[in-house]
Design a protein that fits this description.
Layout lengths: L9 E6 L5 E7 L2 E7 L5 E3 L18 E3 L4 E4 L1 E6 L19 H14 L4 H14 L2 E9 L7 H12 L5 E7 L10 H11 L3 E5 L8 H15 L2 E6 L3 H17 L6 E5 L8 H14 L1 E5 L9 H6 L4 E3 L16 H11 L5 H10 L2 H7 L14 E4 L4 H7 L3 E6 L2 E5 L2 E2 L15
Parallel strand pairs: 1-5, 7-8, 8-9, 9-10, 10-11, 11-12, 12-13, 13-14
Antiparallel strand pairs: 1-2, 2-3, 3-4, 6-15, 15-16, 16-17, 17-18
Helix pairs in contact: 2-3, 4-5, 5-6, 6-7, 9-10, 9-12, 10-12
The chain binds zinc ion.
């Protein structure tokens, strides 16, 4: 690819996810038309009807030839923690702990030692994500008695700064508990007033010791502020499944179907067939989605949940932070990991793995005009692969990343025209 136009008008000769070769025309930050190179047919935005059909005739300077590279809508990282990452700071040795509570304490220690501000570390991670073709992420942000709203305010600032690269949803996340952490219910309330998009939770029974009390507060805040819910649930076995059913009941009672996610839900990979079937059925009926990052231990069974009608989608979760030294922010790599962990092998199953980081995640996050149809946002990624199956199996290089029609990364690297780092900002590498 020679000098890449900042605002391409045609992405020529791409492979669409269904295998067709096409030229995709872009205008005003959206897809204007998709011209099928095999049939010669074009589909266009309704506002563009009346213009001549046939191959796009945009000036050559806006045309990017992609030689059959796979074009996907921008990848979606359905679960990140931008405020936690150590990227942008020197490498931090992992300390950990044997329980969630011990690891929360270890994290507070580690983060107090960091001198690189949250804004700089979060931006370093955003730039990695953008290079990998991620156009949207839902980041949980710690709200606790120690940091109070500081991390939220930092990420609100980051959201402003990187708004032309990626869209961010922020979840007010009670990392130190809700009931067992003084003042946290009021802090969550303030976080939602200040700009958090959703309210989070953490192991209502296992961490707070009182599932009903935590869920009363979390769903009460969701109702009062008219926001969705995304809870972390690591509690195992039957106890975890019982909380999933309680969450589904509250979701249904408040009419929040489609706006509630339970992240991790390891218990779904542990409980017996009858409990699984009963729990999956109530999750599906209530419209509660399940998020997974393909963890090392028990994990939700992707195919069985989908067969039961439960939406499953994917996120990175921790990326080089106090919880976990691993992670790249590459959502195609995440699809590879989840595919391997879930034994997704056939072509059809590899397409399912891809959907977890694209269409299913976009639907769970409520993203509008997401896709490759005329009128959809031109948030796009071209992958050096001949099709979706190869992209999931090998997570190859990202050739081109667009956000709202603008080129924001080429060959895996954010473009030079990105906002320059703040003075004193260190590269992570
Ligand atoms: Zn998380």
């Amino acid at each position: 690819m020679h000098s890449t136009p900042a605002h391409p008008t045609v992405l020529a000769d791409v492979t669409l996810p269904d295998g067709r070769r096409a030229d995709v025309s872009l205008r005003d930050g959206r897809i204007a038309a998709v011209h099928d190179r095999g049939t010669g047919r074009s589909s266009e935005r309704s506002s563009d009807r009346g213009s001549p059909t046939g191959p796009p005739t945009a000036p050559d300077r806006g045309r990017i030839e992609l030689a059959g590279a796979l074009l996907l809508p921008a990848l979606v990282d359905g679960h990140s923690h931008l405020d936690k990452t150590f990227l942008g700071a020197p490498w931090q040795p992992h300390t950990g702990g044997s329980s969630v509570r011990e690891r929360v304490a270890a994290e507070l220690d580690a983060r107090q030692r960091l001198t690189t501000p949250v804004t700089e570390r979060a931006q370093a991670l955003v730039h990695r994500m953008v290079g990998h073709g991620t156009g949207h992420t839902r980041s949980h942000v710690d709200i606790d008695p120690h940091s109070r709203l500081a991390n939220l305010h930092a990420l609100l600032e980051v959201r402003e700064r990187v708004g032309d690269l990626i869209s961010l949803q922020l979840v007010a996340f009670p990392q130190s508990g809700v009931v067992s952490a003084p003042g946290v219910p009021d802090l969550l309330d303030a976080a939602l007033r200040d700009g958090a998009d959703l309210v989070g939770g953490l192991d209502p029974q296992g961490f707070d010791g009182d599932a009903d009390a935590q869920l009363d507060i979390v769903f009460g805040l969701a109702e009062r502020h008219g926001v969705g819910v995304d809870l972390h649930l690591h509690d195992p076995g039957e106890a975890g499944a019982a909380q999933l059913r309680a969450i589904a009941d509250r979701t249904a009672a408040l009419g929040l179907g489609g706006r509630v996610t339970v992240s991790h839900a390891y218990c779904l990979g542990e409980v017996g067939g009858a409990v699984f079937a009963r729990t999956a059925a109530v999750l599906a009926r209530a419209g509660v989605s399940i998020l997974t990052n393909g963890p090392a231990g028990p994990m939700p069974p992707v195919l069985r949940l989908r067969e039961a009608g439960v939406r499953v989608f994917a996120g990175s979760d921790n990326i080089r932070d106090a919880w976990w030294p691993y992670g790249t922010g590459d959502m195609l790599e995440r699809a590879t990991i989840i595919g391997l962990r879930s034994e997704l092998m056939s072509d059809q199953e590899l397409h399912i793995a891809a959907s977890l980081v694209t269409t299913e995640a976009a639907a769970a996050l409520g993203l509008e005009r997401y896709g490759l149809r005329p009128g959809d946002r031109a948030d796009l990624v071209a992958v050096a692969a001949g099709g979706v199956t190869e992209a999931v199996a090998a997570h190859p290089r990202r050739l081109l990343v667009l956000h709202a029609g603008r080129v924001v990364a080429t060959n895996g690297c954010p473009v030079a025209a990105l906002p320059t780092p703040e003075p004193g900002m260190q590269r992570a590498w």
